[in-house]
Amino acid sequence: MTREKLNIRMAPILVQKDELLYNVNKVYNTIKLNGNYTGKTIFYGEGAEGPATATAVISDIYKIKLGG
Question: What sign results for the dihedral spanned by CA atoms 60, 62, 67, 68?
Answer without folding.
Answer: negative
